[in-house]
Amino acid sequence: MDPPFNSKATYNVLFHEKDGTAPPAQIMAFHDSWKWDEGAEDTLREVGRCGPKRVSDLLEALLQFLGRNDMMAYLTMMAPRLLELRRVLKPTGSLYLHCDEVAAHYLKLVMDGVFGPERFLTEIVWQRTNVHSDSKCWSDVRDSILLYAKWGRFTWNPQYVPFAEKYVQGKYRYADPDGRRYRLDNMTSPSPRPRMMYEWRGYPCPPYGWRYQRETMQRLHDEGRIWYPTTQDGELDTSKRPQLKRYLEEMPGVLMGNVWTDIPPINSRAKERLGYETQKPEALLKRIILASSNEGDTVLDPFCGCGTTIIAAEELHRSWIGIDITHLAITPIRRRLRDSFEGSLIPYNVTGEPQDVPSARSLAEGVWSSSSAIRLSPSQIRACGFPALGSS
Fold it and tell me: The pTM is what?
């Protein structure tokens, strides 16, 4: 989920009290979308009445600390949505929450209340832009992505990035006649292995034995995966030991950590750019979807915006459900689906669109209150194991 949390054009005092006064900290970031009003009061009371006690207690504590201001309105809005998202998650599901440093620590508290602090997996740091030359302090170049699991068992597929060229040149310095690059790896055991103590093709047994049994050594030999040291005359050089060939093409790459600096933001020249203010790169969503789901699983984005999560999920053969509060999000999503997949897209349903003239008039007058959603049909949702999404 990527809920609204800032604006590139407008920066407002976030901790603004209801009477208009601002605290000395003057913390800036949020677009002026969240205001403490009667609706926020109602939501807070509803969470206290129907929500888990630890979540309502947490919100009350935050209210005492923050006061009735824009940040508290934002956190109060997020709490019931997070509770609903946890409810619809499968036991093996996980939730990624994209935010910035202004609200990340408060949102983590709310997430701890909803999921339990023991379900926190990591905070991903995504470098979303370059250093700003006009920054008055350390340049703000990153966002946070908080990752929580519903239970201890969660879907996880490690992700890798290609080796750097300098690393390849330094480590994979050898090549077979067919051009396959490889590096050499030790084949001796680091500790005593009595069953592995044997001579191999004229090479004496290492002090602790070989790393592999005879059958495995023979297979590796037959596959041409063992490098044998020889003298200049082509004789066995028994002062050295055979080594294993590890081919570059068989290596998955560098295992990804939780600091991502390799995915650039959507810039003015990006091919996928739509002009949607909060659009995220497809590569960002694809990495998340690949890591935490498998083909055929269902991906839900409750703030789907211009539909990048939907496009990424469709390309990766996942089922998907997208929800957005503005009807204006539907048109660019439909266009992206049409342009990206043409005739190969499985039919989907759209709910929340006006179906008659009075509904269209209400939408035009700005009083349309239903969320618009692109989603699977009810039968498809049931087939994926999802309960009803309720009012979320």
Answer: 0.78
